[in-house]
Structure formats: structure tokens, C-alpha cells
Amino acid sequence: MSENKFTISGPVEQVTAEIIAPKKVAAGFPALTNSLKHARREMNFTSCTKALFSLNQFNGVDCPGCAWPDPDEDRSSLGEYCENGVKAIAEEATTERITRSFFEKHTITELSNWSDYELGKSGRLTEPMILRKDAANYEPLSWQEAFEYIGQKLKSLSDPNEAIFYTSGRTSNEAAFLYQLFVRLYGTSNMPDCSNMCHESSGVGLSNTLGIGKGSVMLEDFYISDLIIVMGQNPGTNHPRMLSALQKAKKAGAKIVSINPLPEAGLTAFKHPQKVGDLLGKATKIGDLHLPVKVNGDVALLKAVMLRLKEEDDQNLGSIFDHKFIDQNTEGIESFLEDLSTYDLKNLLKQSGITLSEVDRLVDLIKHSKKIICCWAMGLTQHKNGVDNIQEVVNLLLLKGSVGIPGGGTCPVRGHSNVQGDRTMGVWEKAKPGFLKKLNENFGVDPNLRDGYDTVGSIAAMAESKVKVFFAMGGNFLSATPDTEITGKALQNCDLTVQVSTKLNRSHVVTGTEAIILPCLGRTEIDEQKSGEQYVTVENSMGIVHSSSGVLKPASNHLKSEVAIVCELAKKTLKNSSVRWDDYKNDYSLIRDAVENTIPGFEDYNKRSKQDAGFYLPNCARDGKFETSTGKAKFTINKVSAIKMAKDELLMMTIRSHDQFNTTIYGMNDRYRGILNGRRVVMMNEQDIKQRGLKQGDLVDLTSTYDGKTRHAKAFMVVSYPIPESSVATYFPEANVLIPFDKFADKSKTPISKSVVVKVVKSR
Ligand SMILES: Nc1nc2c(c(=O)[nH]1)N[C@H]1C(S)=C(S)[C@@H](COP(=O)(O)OP(=O)(O)OC[C@H]3O[C@@H](n4cnc5c(=O)[nH]c(N)nc54)[C@H](O)[C@@H]3O)O[C@H]1N2
Ligand SMILES: Nc1nc2c(c(=O)[nH]1)N[C@H]1C(S)=C(S)[C@@H](COP(=O)(O)OP(=O)(O)OC[C@H]3O[C@@H](n4cnc5c(=O)[nH]c(N)nc54)[C@H](O)[C@@H]3O)O[C@H]1N2
Ligand SMILES: [Mo]
After folding, report:
1. Cβ-based neighbours of 475, under 8 Å, separated by 6 or more
2. Which residue, among 267, 644, 228, 190, has the nearest Cα to 460 in the 3D structure?
């Protein structure tokens, strides 16, 4: 480990990965033993049992992992958890602590050479720290000094738009509502969030076509569905509790299809880790059909499927499409079909990498199904044509009349546990006019605030030195965003960077001229305020709002809640604020009252959030009503991928291993994919490996070239993997240095993390 040179993107670790056969079954005993291994390594026995038994129980702790919903009734008394939920808890409830002596001992230059894994494993942050100008180390400061310091700095800016306020998706509704209120009262809409990099394409595509940026189905719909299509999503790793729903759906007769370049374990077969029968017996086969689409080949595939369906519909007197639904509820069918007819089936098959007989197997399943659910995640959203991907999925569902019916609809599966709620609370660089009007009436927010920077806009603005203060409510902006080197330099252009965090990460190390760390309570911890113990609320992927109450003793006596941090900061920053910041801090039920008075759907918020499973927010698409500009669901014309590649180029997707939560690295194993003990790997098709005169285990350098600028990532190990030719996969965030921040999805501006054109050459 070099200590002399400061690095932005961290060390290039030597790869010593061990490659074994990928797994075909997800969960089962190995998931149990693995989760316990993580829990035991990080936590003491009492916190471990307390946290796990309360996890996802009525009025218990909402898992800080993913946003998959819990059953409305019938929850396991062992806790509704999965292997990766346990890891998320263990990460937060770790017994390791970072104290002031840690920062005395390790300079910022030294820490910049630690890996994300090493930084994260150092433990929970315990007191506010400041990195002063030109200092080598962080030093402690009191909370009051910290708020004073940040408040002064914000007040001194000549334009509030010189500040940026980022949000990651773990922030509770209560904290998110106050945070956006504070930022807007301060006078800016510069609120980039992790959603910009995540499901933004879903939000845009769904709003445009169905009139609501959220999914339409509920958990119950899975159990009565005929057909569930899972596209561009790896639930076995990223939403393991979804596998229980797929298992139940399967047992009730649903067919399940996966469309994914990789044969992901959870979509093949599953053993429920909390059911003894499953653990001892045979696994449930989950997938009926797997279509190994090329990276970014989805629009081509969907068009091929719809062309074949159209032929069938023509031959079968219109009995395949739901013409009645189409007539009554949609618009644009004629131009959609006209455009579809211009495509050549052979070309579409070539572009998707799927054979005609495979396409016809899917067509056959769709033909015989009325109730169809399409689920998706990052495999569809993080492309130049990410919005088109989503809209093409909607086209298919509309043809079948399968939106807004029991058992059928859209299911974008959200990432962070409260990313959907943060948006509902108004964390967004834009705002619906009605919302700003309400904020104006209730709190005096300027109703004419203009749109602010989103995530890529923020990077550009910081790179151009237009920004003086960068403030992050959670997350790890540097490692999560594309173009690590450029983003790092952009952050360094700021005068002050502030991170509200639970754990140490790269964003604390690559900073503005000065930097402040504000350590906060995690979701699992007891939040005691003046009026007593507080609970918070979150919204899951299916629009259910419910409570979450911490059960563990806080990691340090000096931690503050995110709500308290926002209130204190607002008091120090805003001149003559009439908002009751102190009351809100003392009693979160008052914040919920304020939300109720501002955002539709939150009637009786305090009462209903205490009900066992919480309450559903209104959802027009679920009710079969489409609140688009015309009141109809819209067919849209979408582009087949237009990415051009030279012969020696490959299309790279950057994905998650089984041992990470975004930029938090839990361990070095991607157990299901059989890649152990190393993350700097590139999964390649055997043909692509041979063509380059390479073999598994070779070290290669990756480059990407956009607009004449070449980016480099050195020393990745080649892994021969069942992935379509010309597609390759690497892990995020190691490969983020290759992703140009100024290349993103049309309309949603989501970075192209799943389709980066790269070259792979042997390292010298
Ligand atoms: N344990 C754990 N849970 C998590 C997270 C985590 O990091 N760890 N992250 C959370 C967050 S924020 C999110 S957004 C979600 C992410 O959940 P996912 O979207 O499942 O995460 P990724 O690993 O990005 O996986 C993308 C999947 O899409 C496939 N794919 C890639 N490109 C394409 C394509 O062009 N077409 C198709 N059809 N498929 C493609 C990949 O092979 C992979 O299976 O998970 C959430 N839950
Ligand atoms: N190449 C590539 N890049 C990607 C993606 C990809 O698939 N490929 N995925 C994108 C996606 S989908 C997302 S959502 C983003 C994720 O982007 P972020 O949300 O910014 O990143 P995380 O890694 O989830 O943030 C982890 C940090 O959050 C802090 N934290 C954890 N819990 C809490 C809490 O309760 N409160 C506070 N205040 N802080 C907390 C800890 O300090 C931890 O280090 O990354 C994106 N980046
Ligand atoms: Mo995400």
C-alpha cells in the first residue's frame, strides 16, 4: 500500500480470483450460513438477534437493503430477511468504530490508497470531523461548530445555486421532506439523487406512457399472474426476498421468463432459507425460459416478439391482442404498428442475439397469458436508450391489455430501501408545479424556483467550478457516479464538501478544499428525541408507506438523526425562517402532519403509518386510469439500440457482485457466479477470449474512447463466462473510471453504466 501519492480512484488491487462453476440454485443452506458468518463477524450476539428478529416485522426495522415489499400479512416470525439483508444489517450494526484517533493515525493521502472494502470495514463513524485547508488529517469539531461553519459558508455564497445537495436512497420520508424543504427555502433546486443513476429512465418512461412514474402492481398480483417476465434484473442477489414471491407465483401456476445476458442463479431455481422443507428438500425450479439477450438488445428482442405476436393476431382474428382494451384506454396504436411493420425480423434477431425458436417460445407463453407482469431493474434503465427500453415494455403490456388489471402490470424493482419515498417527499431537481405551490402556501418556498442540477449536471457544474459547496445526505457520490477520475477532480474544485454518513467511504477522502463529516444514526438504531423514541416511515417499491423503528443502541452517543441534522442546519442557514424546525426535531409526528398538508395521498398519515403493514399510496395506473396529457395510455415508437462498435470492441455492463451493496463492499465473493476472492475481473464469452489470443486468468487492460478521449482501467482478470458474444461484464464501482459522465440516457440522463463500448487488451 503506497502512502505517498494521493489517488482519486483508489488502489489497483492485485487479482487473485478463484473461478468455479456458477451456481444454479439461489439461497438454501449456503445463504443461511453465509449470512450468519457476516453477522457473527460484525456484530455481537444480542444486537444480532434483536435486529434480525425485528427485521421487516410490523412496526419493526425496515431492512436498509433493497426496496422489495413485505407481505401485507403472514410474515415469518424468524424475521423477513434474506442473506443480503443480513449483510446490510451487519454492515450498519458492526461493533467496529472509527474514533478521532483513527483520523490522527491515518492521513487523507494514506486513506486514498485504501480500497472501498477497507474503508468500509473500518467501522461506524462516531463524531463530527473536519478536514481543514491543506491539512493532512481530519480533526474533531463539535456539532455546534459544524452547523455554524456550514451555515456561514452557505450564507456567504453569492447565489444559492452555487450549492448542491445530493441524496442517497436510505433517507427516511421525514428527513427527506425536511431536507428538500430546507434546500428549497435556501433557494435552490440543486438536488441530484441516486435515482438519477438508477430508475430515472423508469420514472420518465412510465410517466410518459401511463401517467405515473411508479410501478402498477402489488405483491398479491404475483400470486395470480399467468406470466412474469424479469428483464435486466438479478433478484437472487439484489432483491432476494423477491424469490419467495416468484416461488409462490410459480406454485400457483405462473410461468416465469428471464431476459438477461447472464443466467442468474435466482432466476433458475430457489430454496427458501426460512422454510425447513425447502432447505432439506429439492429446490423450486423458477425459470421456464431464459433468453440470453445481448447487452442493450432488449428493444430489438421486444420488437421481434411483438412482430410475431402481430402475425398471430392477424391469423387468429384479433384474438391475441386485447383490442377492446386498446380501443378504450390507449392511443397511438396505428402509428406504433406501422412503425413495427418496418422492421425486419432477421435483423432484429441478429441485434438481440436471440434465435427465432427462442423468440417463439416467449411468444407462445405471451399468447396464452392474459395477466402479465414485467419486472425490471438496472439492466434496462442504464443505457442511452434506457427510456425507450421501458416504453417498449409498456407497448407489449398495452397490446395485451395487461396494465391496471389484477395479476398484470409494470414492476420496476427499486434499489435503495427508500429511494421511491425520497422522490415522493420532493427530493428531485425538478418539481411538479402543484407541489411548489403547496410548499409556497405552507412554508413560503419561492413558487418560481427553477430546475436544478441532476447527478450528471452536478458533475459538469463542479468540473466547471460553478459550485462552492457540495452537501451529501448519505451515499458515496464519488464511487457511485461515472468517470471516477473526472468526478473526483470536480469535487476537489469545491470549497467545502459535507457528508452525512454512517460509514467511511471514498467521498470522505476525495474532498473539496475543506471537508466535514457528520455522523448519523442508521435505520437499525433507536432514535430518542425530546418527545421520546421516534419512528420514521419509508415507501417500498410498490408504493406502500409504513413505519420503521430502530431497536439497537446507537453506535456512539454523539450521533444525530438525519432529521436533527437538517433542522439544526436549517436554523443556522436560513434567515427569518418561520418553519418550526425545533418542534419537528423534537417530535417527528409533526413532520408527518406537515407532509399530510402538502402531499396528496398522506391523509391520516400518523394513524395509518402505525397500522401493521402501513398504507398504499394512490396509483392511477393500478386502478386502470391513465393520468397522461390525454387521459389515455400511450403507445410509443422507440428506437432499437444504435450503438455502433468496431470489430475489436465489446459492450460492457457494470454490475453488482453478490457481496456488495452499491459502493459498500461486504466481501470478495460473487458466490452464485462462482467468482471468488477477487473483484477486478471481466466476464467474457469464450469466443471473444480466443479471438484476442487470451485465456481465462490472463490480466487485461480495458479502455473506452468517447469524443476522442480514452479512459483506462488496468489489470482485470479474464473470466470465461456464459455471456453472449460481444458483451462483457465488470463490477461497479471498479469499472466506473471507464464510464463517460457526459454520455447518458436520452430524456432521463441516467449514465450508460450498462452499455459502455470498450476494448480489451492483454496487460503488459
Ligand atoms: N445485495 C444488494 N442488493 C441491492 C443492491 C446491491 O448492490 N446489493 N443495490 C440496490 C440498488 S440501488 C439497485 S438499483 C438494485 C439493482 O438491482 P439489479 O438491477 O438487479 O442490479 P445489477 O447488478 O446492476 O444487475 C443488472 C442485471 O441486469 C442484467 N443486464 C445488464 N445489461 C442488460 C441488458 O442490456 N439487457 C438485459 N435484459 N439485462 C441486462 C445483468 O446481467 C444483471 O443481471 O438492487 C438493490 N439491491
Ligand atoms: N457503474 C455503475 N455505477 C452505478 C450503478 C451501476 O449499476 N453501475 N448503479 C447506480 C445506482 S442504481 C445507485 S442507486 C447508485 C448508488 O449510489 P449511492 O446511494 O450514493 O451509494 P451507496 O453505495 O449506496 O452509499 C453508501 C454510503 O451511504 C452511507 N449510508 C449508509 N446508510 C446510511 C444512512 O442511513 N444514512 C446516511 N446518511 N448515510 C448512510 C454510508 O456512509 C455508505 O458508505 O450508484 C449508481 N452507480
Ligand atoms: Mo439503485
Report:
1. 166, 167, 168, 169, 194, 507
2. 190
Q: Which of 199, 301, 655, 752 should be mutated for ligand 1, with most atoms under 8 A from CB?
A: 655
Neighbours of 318 (CB within 10 A): 12
Instruction: Choose the residue to mutate in 124, 170, 566 for probing ligand 2, maximizing ligand atoms within 8 Å of C-beta.
Output: 170
Ligand that comes closest to the CA of residue 266 = 1
- Write down the residue that cell numbers 384479433 correspond to: 318
Whole-structure pTM over 0.90, yes or no? yes
Per-10-residue mean pLDDT, the chain, length 764: 80 91 87 82 82 80 88 71 88 95 98 96 98 98 98 98 98 98 98 98 98 97 98 96 95 98 93 80 90 98 98 95 98 98 98 98 97 98 98 98 98 96 98 95 96 98 98 98 98 98 98 98 97 97 96 97 98 94 98 98 97 94 96 96 94 98 96 96 98 97 98 98 98 98 98 98 95
CATH superfamily of 200-412: Dimethylsulfoxide Reductase, domain 2 (3.40.228.10)
Query: How far is it, in rounded angstroms, from Cα 354 to Cα 720?
Result: 20
With respect to CATH, is domain 50-193+430-616 assigned 3.40.50.740?
yes
Q: Cβ(198) to ligand 2 under 6 A?
A: yes
**Ligand 2 within 6 A of 520 CB?**
yes
Query: Which residue's alpha carbon is at the smallest distance from atom 39 of ligand 1?
Result: 232
Separation of CA 475 and ligand 2 centre (Å): 4
Ligand in nearest proximity to the CA of 66: 1
Neighbours of 627 (CB within 10 A): 12
Query: Which of 168, 172, 238, 458 gets mutated to test ligand 2 (max ligand atoms within 8 A of its CB)?
Result: 168
168 ligand 2 Cβ < 6 A: yes
In this structure, are residues 332 and 408 in contact, taking their beta carbons and an 8 Å threshold? no
Domain with CATH 3.40.50.740 in the chain: 50-193+430-616
Domain with CATH 2.40.40.20 in the chain: 642-762
Range list for CATH 3.40.228.10 in the chain = 200-412
Query: What contacts 647, CB < 8 A, 6 or more positions away?
Result: none
**Contact in structure between 324 and 401 (CB atoms under 8 Å):** yes
642-762: CATH class: mainly beta
Residue nearest to atom 22 of ligand 2 (CA): 475
DSSP assignment string, 240-304: HHHHHHHHHHHHTT-EEEEE-SS--GGGTEEE-TT-HHHHHSPPEE--SEEE-PPTT-HHHHHHH
Ligand 1 interacting residues, C-beta cut-off 6 A: 65-66, 84, 198, 231-234, 237-239, 259-262, 264, 293, 295-296, 298, 377-379, 415-416, 653, 655-656, 660-662, 754
